[in-house]
Design goal:
The protein has four helices and twelve strands; from the N terminus they run αααββαββββββββββ. The chain has 292 residues and is an alpha+beta fold. The protein folds into two domains: 29-105; 134-261, no CATH class. Helix 1 (32-49) packs antiparallel against helix 2 and helix 2 packs antiparallel against helix 3 (84-105).
Length: 292
């Protein structure tokens, strides 16, 4: 029709205008600056942890070196993207050599003492202590007194069972020693204490001790050997069942000593000593039932 208006061409929706030069924000874990901060923080924390006593300094420094290499790689990737591998290797080697040199210059940490088969009564000598002129050893009903001078020059065996001695008493300086042998004769299990060092416990037995006492118990938790020193280290007490040879045995309890010739002691014939420590020793190392 003549009066119709001309049809306008359809307009296509316009695409959004984008700026190819607009900056894009990378995720945090893809930023070199983030990993550089992680490396620096990890290095500092690892070095601080290494200062705590009881911790292995070399392990802590190993972590510090690892974190340090991470930080060096991050910085090299930002500053020298074309040669980041080369500079990362050089920085890691230099950092490792720095830790080695630092370990050589710093004094070594004192090692944490671990349990051993050495029975020690005193870990620190007092500055002042009385002059030791005599000592006493109690074996059941017998209390034996000796001059310190005599025990420094010769050892004493209170009981002799056809050449076998369950106890040997002597001194070195002002320190009293009692060597003890449990069993060995008539098929009995053997356990020994010599110069404050003790043998491994027989199968099924257990051992517990502190600075002033040591105790062997059998599989039924019955005391087979007890050696107790007083705090002044001038008195010792021995209890237990001792069969050093086939010729006889000595049974020692509190206030009682029995010598058996040619006999093996029966556990049901004599009063048992009370245990000193808690057991098993793996759960209660050095823990007494009652304080000394």
């Amino acid at each position: 029709m003549a009066g119709d208006l001309p049809k306008q061409p359809e307009q296509m929706p316009s695409a959004p205008i984008t700026d190819d030069h607009a900056p894009t924000v990378a995720p945090l874990h893809e930023r070199n600056s983030f990993w550089g901060a992680v490396g620096a923080l990890g290095t500092c924390v690892s070095i601080l942890i290494s200062l705590f006593p009881g911790l292995n300094r070399n392990i802590c420094w190993g972590f510090a070196w690892g974190f340090g290499c991470l930080g060096i790689w991050a910085v090299a990737s930002m500053k020298f993207p074309q040669r980041n591998t080369l500079y990362s290797v050089i920085g890691g080697v230099a950092l490792g050599m720095g830790f080695i040199l630092l370990g050589l210059l710093l004094p070594q940490k004192t090692a944490v003492p671990v349990a051993s088969n050495v029975f020690t009564r005193a870990r620190r000598e007092p500055r002042f202590k009385p002059l030791v002129e005599s000592v006493r050893v109690t074996i059941g009903s017998d209390t034996l007194s000796y001059s310190a001078e005599s025990l420094r020059t010769r050892s004493v065996a209170p009981y002799n069972l056809n050449g076998q001695t369950p106890f040997l008493i002597y001194m070195e300086g002002d320190e009293l020693f009692v060597d003890v042998t449990v069993g060995g004769g008539m098929g009995t299990p053997t356990a020994r204490i010599k110069h404050n060092q003790f043998s491994e416990a027989p199968v099924g037995w257990d051992i517990n001790f502190d600075d002033y006492a040591i105790e062997f118990v059998d599989k039924d938790r019955r005391p087979m050997l007890q050696l107790i020193y007083n705090l002044s280290q001038t008195e010792a007490e021995i209890r237990g069942m001792f069969s050093p040879s086939d010729q006889g045995s000595v049974v020692v309890s509190e206030g009682r000593t029995t010598i058996l010739l040619g006999q093996r002691p029966s556990m049901n014939s004599y009063p048992l000593n009370k245990t000193i420590f808690k057991y098993p020793s793996s759960d209660h190392p050095g823990e007494r039932l009652t304080p000394p």
